Every structure is written in C-alpha cells, then in structure tokens.
C-alpha cells in the first residue's frame, strides 16, 4: 500500500466518522471510483467500522478492542508512525450505534434497558419508541422503557437533547440526581454536568415539568429555560439561550454579545480554541455562523473587529486595541 493510500485511510476514517468536509468527502468518493480495488478497500474499512465494536456479551462494549480489530485488519507495511485518530473516532461512534441496535432487539424482550455514551464526539441516536436523542460530548445516558405500559425513564449525566413525539398514553421522565423532568410532548435540552452547580432545562417546543419529589418545581414552555441551583435548592425561570443546541447544529446567533461570551460558547464546541486578550473581552459582536470551520469563524471575528490573528495547531489568538 502506498503512502498516498495511508493518507486516504485517514480521510476514509473521517468520512465514516462524519467528520469529513465536503471537499474531503468528494476526495474519498473520487478515489473509490478510480479502481475496483480502491472501492473494495473502502468497503472493507466500512465493514470493520460497522462491526468493530460488536462483542458476544452485548452488555459490554470495549472501544480498545474494537480499535485493535480495526487496526489489525489494515496491517500497515511501513515503519513511520501513522495517526489513526479519525478511525479510532469511527470505532467509538460504532460502539454507540451498535449498542442502539442491541437495545432495539432487547426492548421488546426480557431486557428493557440500554446505555448510550459519548466521549469526544457528539452522538445522535433514536430510541425504539421513536424518541430522538443527541448526546453532547462526555455524556452518559441509561434508558429503561416498558413498551406495554409506554413508560420510559432516562438517567442522564452530561448534556443531551430529546425530541419526544406527543402521546397522551406515553410517559417519559428524565432523571438527573434528585431532579425529575417530565415530558409533555416536546423538544428540549438538558444540561446537567456533575461538576456544575446548576442544572438547566431549555425547551424548544412544547412543555416540560421540572421538579423534585419534594418540590413541585416549575413548568417550562417553548422559548424558556428552567435553572435549578444545587446550592440553594431553588428553581428559576429564564429566557432560553439562542445557542443552546449549537453543539449539535453548529449554528450560532450572536446579537450584541460580548466577545468573551462568544469565545466561551465556541470553545465549548470546537476542539481548536480561540484565545483573546483581556481588553477585547467586552467588545460587542453581532454575527451569525452556520456550520463554519473554527478557523473561518476566527477570521470573520478578526475582520469584524479589526483584530490581528495568529494561529497554531491547537489555538487561535486574537489581538487588538480593544473597544470603547
């Protein structure tokens, strides 16, 4: 296998993981069309990607084992170190997809539980009843569902959004420590990282009931968010953040937002971070971004505010005179 084919393996990994740009996707597809052998190689990696995480005991999914199987099949023949990061991502994503498949098989059998988890990538999946879920990075979710009684209970650690089709006979409750979120047919997002002192529930459509066993809590309608303070044990109702689900859409709307807030929201989603000097933090920005690369976003911010930009592999620095 040539060095060029090692580069293409990296692109195939990005392609399968859903991390490739449009240009990279086209490059992979063009490469596959060059020869039957190329297409066969792609199909082999795709098969490994889809099956790598499958183990006999479906209650356990071993990412390292999945990766070992994938790497063994490729069998590199050169001595130089090759970065397989995107194919490792592909194997990790496959774990979640296959766990969802096993859960579907078991939901209507003796077992009615499944676990979903994300590491450094956002994960999208569907539950057997049709509920759509999106897990932000570093999130764990366990689901128990009684198909006959149409009752579901989700234990969440991290951040996830839910799209639950309204059904008067169906009850879904999301549980975060002592907090409960009862769906009333809606689309909503829950941010509940253990290290945070707050839990936030933002509603895009419909309504939810946010409460505990001891407190009635609050009802949250579309466009609003409920915030629970773990220290004071209190609920408050606020206007929902415009960019609350940007981690899954990569769509941002900033209106007269201070640059520090803009950078904080971007850094929470993109791997490559933006750094600004102290005197730029209060600069105001009105701009929208739709699925842009972080380097492009930084260029736009620099152009908008007349800033100087320097970039390294992991960080982008913005410098300027500040704003009055």
Give a structural overview.
- This protein has helices at 3-17, 22-34, 36-51, 63-74, 85-107, 246-249, 259-267, 294-305, and strands at 113-118, 123-126, 132-135, 139-146, 151-163, 171-176, 179-183, 187-192, 198-205, 207-212, 218-221, 224-229, 234-239, 251-258, 273-276, 284-290, 308-311, 315-319.
- The longest helix has 23 residues, at 85-107.
- The radius of gyration is 22 Å and the shape is flat.
- Strands 1, 2, 3, 4, 5, 6, 7, 8, 9, 10, 11, 12 and 13 form a 13-stranded mixed sheet that branches.
- The protein has 324 residues and is an alpha+beta fold.
What is the topology?
Layout: H1 3-17, H2 22-34, H3 36-51, H4 63-74, H5 85-107, E1 113-118, E2 123-126, E3 132-135, E4 139-146, E5 151-163, E6 171-176, E7 179-183, E8 187-192, E9 198-205, E10 207-212, E11 218-221, E12 224-229, E13 234-239, H6 246-249, E14 251-258, H7 259-267, E15 273-276, E16 284-290, H8 294-305, E17 308-311, E18 315-319
Parallel strand pairs: 5-6, 15-18
Antiparallel strand pairs: 1-4, 2-3, 3-5, 4-5, 5-8, 6-7, 7-10, 8-9, 9-12, 10-11, 12-13, 14-16, 17-18
Helix pairs in contact: 1-2, 1-3, 1-5, 2-3, 3-4, 3-5, 4-5
Task: Give a brief outline of the structure.
This protein has helices at 3-17, 22-34, 36-51, 63-74, 85-107, 246-249, 259-267, 294-305; strands spanning 113-118, 123-126, 132-135, 139-146, 151-163, 171-176, 179-183, 187-192, 198-205, 207-212, 218-221, 224-229, 234-239, 251-258, 273-276, 284-290, 308-311, 315-319.
């Amino acid at each position: 296998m040539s060095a060029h084919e090692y580069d293409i393996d990296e692109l195939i990994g990005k392609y399968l993981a859903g991390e490739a740009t449009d240009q990279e996707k086209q490059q992979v597809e063009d490469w596959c069309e060059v020869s039957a052998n190329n297409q066969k190689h792609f199909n082999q990696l795709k098969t490994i990607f889809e099956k790598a995480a499958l183990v006999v005991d479906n209650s356990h999914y071993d990412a390292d084992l999945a990766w070992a199987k994938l790497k063994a099949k490729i069998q590199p023949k050169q001595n130089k170190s090759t970065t397989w990061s995107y194919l490792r991502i592909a194997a990790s994503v496959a774990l979640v997809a296959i766990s969802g498949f096993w859960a579907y098989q078991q939901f209507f059998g003796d077992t009615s539980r499944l676990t979903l988890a994300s590491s450094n990538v956002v994960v999208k999946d569907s539950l057997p009843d049709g509920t759509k879920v999106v897990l932000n990075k570093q999130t764990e979710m366990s689901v128990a569902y009684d198909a006959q009684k149409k009752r579901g209970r989700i234990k969440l650690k991290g951040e996830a959004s839910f799209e639950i089709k309204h059904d008067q006979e169906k009850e879904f409750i999301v549980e975060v420590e002592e907090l409960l979120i009862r769906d009333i047919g809606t689309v909503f997002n829950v941010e509940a990282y253990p290290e945070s002192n707050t839990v936030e529930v933002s509603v895009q459509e419909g309504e939810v009931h946010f409460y505990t066993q001891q407190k009635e809590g609050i009802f949250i309608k579309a466009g609003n968010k409920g915030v629970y303070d773990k220290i004071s044990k209190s609920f408050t109702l606020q206007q929902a953040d415009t960019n609350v689900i940007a981690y899954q859409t990569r769509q941002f709307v900033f209106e007269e937002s201070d640059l520090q807030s803009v950078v904080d929201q971007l850094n929470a989603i993109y791997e490559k971070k933006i750094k600004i000097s102290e005197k730029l933090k209060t600069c105001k920005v009105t701009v929208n971004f739709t699925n842009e690369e972080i380097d492009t976003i930084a260029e736009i911010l620099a152009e908008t505010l007349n800033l100087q930009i320097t970039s390294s592999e992991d960080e982008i620095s913005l410098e300027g005179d500040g704003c009055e």
